[in-house]
Amino acid sequence: MKLENLINCIDYIELVNLEDLTNEIEGISYNSKKTKRNDIFICLTGEHVDGHEYAEEAIANGASVCVVERRLNIDSPQIVVSSTEESIAKIASVFYTDPSTKLNIIGVTGTNGKTTVTHLIQALYEAFDNKCALIGTLGHKFNSNDSYRDAKHTTPQAPELQELLYNINEKCIDNVVMEVSSHSLVQHRVSNVDFNGAVLTNLTQDHLDFHITMDNYFRAKSRLFESLLVGDFAVINLDDSYAEKFIENISDSVDKYTYGIASDADVKAKNIEFGTNGASFICEVRGKEYPVNLIMNGLFSIYNVLAAITTALAVGFDIQKSIQVLEKIPGVAGRFEIIVNKPTVIVDYAHTPDGLENVLKAAREITPENGKLICIFGCGGDRDATKRPKMGKIAEDLADKVIVTSDNPRSENPQQIITDILAGFRSVNNVVVEPDRELAIKEAYKLAQPNDVVLVAGKGHEDYQILAEETIHFDDREKVREIFG
To answer: Within this chain, do residues 354 and 288 fall inside the same structural domain, yes or no?
Structure first.
């Protein structure tokens, strides 16, 4: 694509050393080491790295022009803009011929439940003979039977995302359901994605190391709904404490649908029961009742299914058939995934206070009266430290035995993270501290009896552990199978 086409799509302040605007741009780069000949290099400023410092390396590797926020003391062509984050989103969209405008895209956002809800929605589209791609925490795939392509982020960076949407369109897939993280909204990764619908799961404490306050976190999530246009739809969890604030920020021209349990929503669950074989409830959809019997368990699973049913209502799918499809879905990898039985060992991705509380309550529902509930968890390093004591308190309140261990400590001292968690306990008499995660699982094996339930929380589907100096292979599911047999 010609450089002038990309320049025309952004609000630039100044063009420096640019004489020929007809040069062909063959790629977009924001990593100087991966820059190739005739790339346009975007100098992004991150928390730890400033892309402006790598402009010369990018030029040496073949970049023909740099997009910068300040004029650099180099002789190479530069485009000066006020925000390289906003510019890269616009440039990527135009470079890949605005692929999102040719697709029906549903964005799912919220603190917990995004991964499961996107998988449920993909299953619904396919059940009604509509091809649907999925983008999210586990990676991306072009259909439900496809294998995941790895993802570094829940929501990819703008160039990767726009290229992926372009490829989805080239494969004649019309629909996309994607997780939309708060980071991606703040960092403009999805600023030039044309969403046709948006779904809110919930909003509870997470990522406050990045957003600082819950109000900032809410405002970040709200951007997705504010981007909706006439004819688009929004699906809101009416039980969430932020529901009304989200609804207030949505344009009157957007169709709004709500779901819940405690609230008088368009789609609601009542007569809820939990058993060893799953959860059951009556789903009331605008006055009409449908019995639902899930393989999945836990109150959080009911909320996820309600979100999917409400999306089915919004897009016009038959509700009875939609429920029949959802009833057959066993769940998503690393989301309340039962790995072995007797004792029952569950692996879950819960890494927030709300997430841990929800899965512990769900685990308690399937714990026999003569059994105990054992919880293994830790907290990630270089992340919101204020949630650590809160999660400690939740574990103490809801589990019979707690084993505090390491999650992904990153650059932090694992023992300090554990100390922060223990600050939330009233008493540490019923707590086992074992920083080595594998040894923590082995400790649970020693403690557990056949009627017990063991919850290994925090990492879910992840097959790695991030330490200070390296990232090692570590999969909770593999370790549980290996240790518990």
So the answer is: no
